[in-house]
Amino acid sequence: VTRKITDSVARISLGSDEVLNLGNLNALRDWGYADEYVEGMWRMLQADTPDTFVLATGKTTSVRDFVRLSFEAADIELEFEGTEDSECARDKDSGRIVVQVDSKFYRPAEVHLLLGDASKAKSVLGWEAKVSVGELATMMVKADIDRHKRG
C-alpha cells in the first residue's frame, strides 16, 4: 500500500490522476526505510553467532496519517470527512476529493496493528531505525514526482 499511496499522491499533485482509493485507513503499520533494513540485514550477517532479529521502527502510524504525510510532501493539505466506508479526504485548497475509502480494498483477514520490537537488534547489532515516517513519505513522494516528470 505504501507504493500505491506515494505514487498516487505524485500523480495527483501533477494533475494526471484523480482519486486515491484505499481500504482501511485505521490500520496501524510500522513503516520503515528499506536502506536501513538492508543495513540491519548486513549487520546480522556480520554477527559472530547466527540468531533471529526483528528490524522495525517500534512506532505505528495509521494508513490515514501516512496518506496525510504523503500529501503534505506534495504541498497538499487534506481535510478528512465521513466515517468508515463513506470516508474521504479533500484537497483543502480546491475542495476536490482526492482520497476515497472503497470497501473492495479491505483485506478479509485484516491485521489492524503491525508493530515490531527491534530492541534485540539494537542491543546486539547496534542497529536502530532513524528515518521517521514523515521523512520516508517525503522521500518517496518526491522520488515519485521526479520519476513521473521524467516520463
Give an account of the 3D structure.
With 151 residues, this protein is of the alpha+beta class. 40% of the residues lie in helices and 13% in strands. The strands form 2 sheets. It has a 4-stranded mixed β-sheet with strand order 1-6-5-4. Strands 2-3 form a two-stranded antiparallel ribbon. It is globular. The mean pLDDT is 95.
Would you summarize the structure shown here?
This protein has 151 residues and is of the alpha+beta class.
H and E string? HEEHEHEEEHH
Please tell me what the overall shape is: globular
Quantity of strands, as a count: 6
Unreliable spans are: none
Helix/strand-derived class?
alpha+beta
State the distance separating the first and last CA atoms: 22 Å
Helix content: 40-55%
Strand content: 5-15%
- How are the strands of the largest sheet arranged? 1-6-5-4
Count of helical regions: 5
Radius of gyration: 17 Å
Taking the sheet with the most strands, its summary is:
4 strands, mixed
Mean pLDDT: 95
List the helices and strands and how they pair.
Blueprint: H1 2-13, E1 20-22, E2 28-29, H2 34-46, E3 61-62, H3 63-73, E4 78-81, E5 88-91, E6 97-101, H4 119-125, H5 133-150
Parallel strand pairs: 1-6
Antiparallel strand pairs: 2-3, 4-5, 5-6
Helix pairs in contact: 1-3, 1-5, 3-5
Give me some keywords for this one.
single chain; alpha+beta; 4-stranded mixed sheet; two-stranded antiparallel ribbon; 5 helices
